[in-house]
Amino acid sequence: MAGIWLIGAYGAVSTTTMTGIAAIKAGAAPRVQAGIVTEAPECDPIRSKFPLEKIALGGHEVRFLDRNAYQASEKIWEENVHFQRSYLDASKNELSKIFAKKGTAINCGPGVDALGDLQTLEGEGLTLSEIVGRLMKDYDSFKNKNGDVCVINAASTEPHITLGEEHQSLDAFEGLIDENKTEMVTASMLYAYAAIKQKIPYGNFTPSHGATVPAIRELAVTQKIPYMGDDGKTGETLMKTTLAPMFKMRNLKILGWAGFNILGDDDGVTLSKDKNKESKIESKDKAISSISSGSFGTISATKGTITDIYSTNGTITNIAVGTCTLSPSTTVAAGALQAFVIPCSQSSGERVNYDVTISYSTTGSSITQQATGSVSGRVP
């Protein structure tokens, strides 16, 4: 057995996912060339180990907790009519048995507050430690029943909060949880932390913080648990990341990019609020800038160290940070993380900003390319 635990279980993304899986199990929905990546021949090893027929479903939610997953799916379908009704009818037997567990919406912003009456763990007066404990208990129960499981955050986009020293290390992050500093966490951080603490893989289907926080990444490394994702990339972002590499390969400069989202359902309500919308816009903008500037996803700094430098298979031949030039010759595997120490003369605690230029060549090519970006952080 295996399982998928969905955060935002009664939202449009999650209910569509659950209906699709249940309909396929019932033989009512197609699975070949139907947008299911794991049904492609390249994914035979994954499909053989985790066939759709063996995947259990569950999740956290903060609304409509008196309903089961079928009732939630039917509500979304009646508002959108976004797939054949026969799929929903075929899923009724399985989804009627699934009831979401109460979750958290801490610092999810005005967009989530606007969705109506929320039923949350913090609404019970629980502290951060107690909320994490409840989430871990729900995960553990699901894992014990279904074996290999993962947590996927498909909840509404939350605003980004400013990350401080408390977010840079696991000890500091766990300290702020123990001290109940609610203003310094978001719901997605708690969902990710609780999952990885239970040694459950975590995926972010939204541009919320989730496991991108350095402290939670440290936990993932310690636990040897995979995490991934910074958005689902199903619509506008998918188009951008398809077209942008083509423009780059054709040596065409991108002068500007305008995108228009026709938002329906609760996504429109959430993203109508500026704070929630900012996180989404940042994610969409990053998709273009990271592709057009080179093969590196992001370049940032923590305590004088460049982190999050991603490359295709290739060799980094030179790094220029500000006026200082480092000259490594490093082979970087696809998606691998490579960190470099930035020497600096500023005093401890001072904030520093550097422009960064990285020269690199991809495997099998003698052509040197460049990626540019900037880093900032405080001197340790």
Number of helical regions: 12
Shape: globular
Biggest sheet, open or closed, and with what strands and sense?
6 strands, parallel
The CATH superfamily title of the largest domain = NAD(P)-binding Rossmann-like Domain
Return the CATH architecture of the largest domain. 3-Layer(aba) Sandwich
Q: Please tell me the total number of domains.
A: 3
Question: What is the CATH level 1 assignment of the largest domain?
Answer: Alpha Beta
Mean of the pLDDT scores?
A: 80
**Roughly what fraction of the amino acids lie in strands?**
15-25%
Our measurement of the CA-to-CA distance between the termini, rounded to an integer number of angstroms, reads: 47 Å
Q: Residue share in helices?
A: 25-40%
CATH topology descriptor of the largest domain:
Rossmann fold
Broad structural category? alpha/beta
Describe this structure in words.
This protein is of the alpha/beta class. It folds into 3 domains: 2-228, Rossmann fold, CATH 3.40.50; 236-292, no CATH class; 300-378. It is 36% helix and 19% strand. The chain is built from 12 helices and 14 strands. It has helices at residues 12-25, 44-49, 69-80, 85-95, 109-113, 128-146, 170-178, 187-197, 214-223, 236-249, 265-271, 274-292, and strands at residues 2-7, 55-61, 101-102, 148-153, 202-204, 227-228, 300-302, 305-309, 314-321, 324-326, 330-332, 338-341, 351-362, 369-378. The strands form 3 sheets. Strands 3-2-1-4-5-6 form a 6-stranded parallel beta sheet, sandwiched between helices. Strands 9, 10, 11, 13 and 14 form a 5-stranded antiparallel beta sheet that branches. Helix 8 (187-197) runs parallel beside helix 9 (214-223). The longest helix has 19 residues, at 128-146.
